[in-house]
Design goal:
- With 632 residues, this protein is mainly alpha-helical.
- Helix content is 54%, strand content 3%.
- It is built from 27 helices and six strands.
- The strands form two sheets. A four-stranded mixed β-sheet has the order 3-4-6-5.
- A hairpin with a 2-residue loop joins strand 5 and strand 6.
- Helix 8 packs across helix 10 and helix 17 packs antiparallel against helix 19.
- The N and C termini lie far apart (73 Å).
């Protein structure tokens, strides 16, 4: 069992990634030296070997059964094939950006033999976009998650795609926490807790690649490598991270974790010309590669009404959602994942919420933290805390707009910053889990029970009203926590910390691990033949151009099913195509309606209109066979 105190042997310190105190010459020199001066024998630690092996085995098993976290069961139910839906769990309607856009784009890429342009689409659009389906081009070198599409059946490849990012996420945060001086067992618990948190699980089936790549970029920056080695590694990793899902606003928000932890744990890196040169050269090289790959798309997207000209104000995170960083289940029903406030959707209510902050507060021996041996921890906590407060100001307060412009936080909703602040809060908690800083007793655990699960339960009816609250899942959490507190009275001391860490992780797995279903990838790529599919094919045969003009299907679902459908999701605007159908439309109004990333929906409206930021309604009569009824 790895120890968690500050008096571990030299071998244990190497295994857990501990360092000399911040600010000491020994540590700063070790932080920037290269060529193995500070070797950390990660694989030599038994816990690390077991943990990483189990992560890989879990990913292989997931792939062997062709499982995915997709909510494509919504589509399968819509074409009357519900039996092909989830093996376990429920397809989530709210995850439409996955089941109605991302997964259909992957289906279209497979059907198009991975060509850049979607020849099975009504619009023949470029598939280089921020969903990035697998494409056969030079960018594939930077997209290892897509490699299996070219050597295995698509169902296996799509399962491996998600397994790859799951393994990358858990192992990446584990290694990052070790590098920050967290003990092995606590690092494993922390990585799993972040993976099974609201923000990660609720956004996983689109934003997973960004969240999973972050710790690996940070880890390479923190690790000592030779200048050329680090420059090449960072060039590839910067490019691969951005190319996995090039959604710039979220990349910018999450990337702020890196400079904060550098300043908190490795201040010497920020002063090293060698390290700055490696990061700077790699950043410029990666930017050039990304621009070369996306230059055509960038030229279009930069001038769009949405999202190119989107500016998001601060203060849009409700206080209850912000508080869910410490009360993980405050905002939703754990049984159904319905939010207690009907104006919120569950994804926007997602935060990196765990009970680690409260658990740490209850176990911490505050007097010991003042000891000079822990000045490095105090320094790190001050920097992490300052960054957390700054993020909180942008999340919940009417912060000055210049702050968002400087930090690039105004390009996405302030809810997206909850991952940044939540990760910092988790790190601040984990670095305090050292033996001489913790008093692990049943009394302290009972205190945590009161200010954590019990207080969270008590707050729900006060904030949302009693009629909106289902107490049963919370009672289970309270009962399990109470049982753990009683167990502390009887078990040996060396088992107490593992028990409490497992408790924090287990609560998160119970609360968030059921959100995404287990969906087989096989029916995603071998669509069941149903009466709905037969009827759609007959309608296409009756269409003079082979196009499908069919309302009632979301996003790119019909194109994913193999139809050249007018109803579609266009990440990049297709202005020239729509101008053919609406030649008399005023230029300014035309630009306002069509110059955006949006789902195209057929309706009975008389003229095209943008009903939401990312939804365009077009008259069905304009695309019906025969003379066009609408030309204005």
């Amino acid at each position: 069992m790895p120890r968690i105190n500050g008096k571990d042997s030299g071998k244990d310190q190497k295994a857990s990634g501990t360092l000399p105190p911040a600010g000491s010459k020994k540590r700063d020199r070790a932080s920037v030296e290269h060529g193995g001066a500070r070797e950390i024998q990660l694989w030599g630690d038994p816990f690390t070997r077991v943990f990483l092996t189990l992560v890989v085995l879990a990913g292989l098993a997931y792939t062997a059964f062709s499982m995915t976290p997709s909510s494509y069961g919504r589509v399968l139910a819509g074409i009357l094939a519900p039996e092909a839906g989830p093996v376990l769990g429920s397809a989530r309607p709210i995850r439409s950006d996955e089941w109605a856009i991302l997964t259909p784009q992957v289906q279209a890429a497979v059907r198009n033999r991975f060509q850049r342009f979607n020849e099975t689409s009504f619009y023949r659009e470029d598939q280089r976009n921020y969903f990035m389906p697998p494409l056969r081009d030079w960018g594939l070198f930077f997209r290892p998650a897509s490699w299996l599409f070219f050597v295995t059946p698509p169902a296996t490849a799509y399962s491996a795609y998600w397994a790859f990012f799951m393994c990358l996420f858990v192992s990446g945060y584990y290694l990052l926490f070790l590098e920050l001086g967290v003990a092995t067992m606590v690092a494993g618990a922390g990585s799993l807790a972040i993976f099974f948190s609201g923000f990660s699980q609720f956004w996983w089936t689109t934003n997973g690649p960004i969240l999973a790549g972050l710790p690996w970029v940070a880890w390479v920056i923190l690790r000592p490598f030779r200048l050329i080695t680090k420059t090449l590694l960072l060039t590839w990793m910067f490019t691969a991270w951005a190319m996995a899902m090039p959604y710039v606003p979220l990349l910018l928000d999450t990337a702020w974790v890196i400079p904060v932890i550098v300043l908190a744990f490795r201040p010497g890196l920020a002063l090293s010309r060698r390290e700055l040169a490696a990061a700077g050269i790699a950043g410029l090289a990666a930017s050039a590669i990304l621009y070369g790959y996306f230059s055509d798309v960038v030229a279009i997207m930069r001038n769009t009404v949405y999202p190119g000209q989107r500016i998001s104000p601060p203060g849009n995170v409700p206080l209850a959602i912000w508080a869910s960083q410490m009360f993980p289940f405050l905002t939703f029903d754990v049984s159904t994942y319905d939010t207690f406030n009907p104006e919120w959707n569950i994804c926007e209510a997602g935060a990196v919420g765990t009970y680690f902050p409260f658990l740490t507060m209850c176990l911490l021996r505050y007097s010991q933290l003042r000891d000079d041996r822990h000045r490095d921890i105090r320094r790190a906590l001050s920097i992490l805390g300052a960054a957390f407060v700054l993020a909180t100001v942008w999340e919940i307060a009417p912060a000055p707009h210049w702050l968002g412009r400087i930090l690039l936080w105004d390009h996405a909703g302030s809810q997206r910053l909850l991952f940044f602040s939540g990760v910092l809060l988790t790190i601040a908690s984990l670095i305090l889990w050292k033996r001489d800083l913790l008093e692990v007793s049943w009394r302290r655990a009972a205190l945590f029970l009161l200010i954590g699960p019990v207080a969270g339960l008590a707050l729900k009816p006060l904030v949302f009203g009693e009629n909106r609250v289902d107490y049963h899942p919370d009672f289970w959490i309270i009962a399990i926590t109470a049982a753990a507190a009683v167990a502390l009275w009887a078990i040996p001391f060396q088992l107490r910390v593992p028990l409490l860490a497992a408790l924090a992780v287990g609560i998160n797995i119970y609360g968030f691990g059921r959100f995404n279903p287990l969906q087989s990838a096989v029916p995603i790529f071998k669509i069941p033949e149903t009466p709905v599919m037969v009827a759609l094919r007959q309608k296409v045969k009756a269409s003079p151009g082979g196009d499908l003009v069919q309302p009632g299907f979301a996003g790119s679902v019909l194109n994913g099913l193999g139809f050249r459908s007018v109803s579609h999701t266009l990440v990049s605007p297709q202005m020239a195509t729509f101008r053919k159908y609406f030649p008399a439309m005023d230029a300014s109004q035309f630009n306002q309606v069509f110059n955006r990333s949006a789902s195209i929906q057929l309706s009975d409206s008389a003229v095209p209109r943008s009903i939401l930021g990312d939804v365009i309604e077009v008259p069905i009569t304009a695309f019906a066979p025969g003379p066009r009824a609408v030309g204005k």
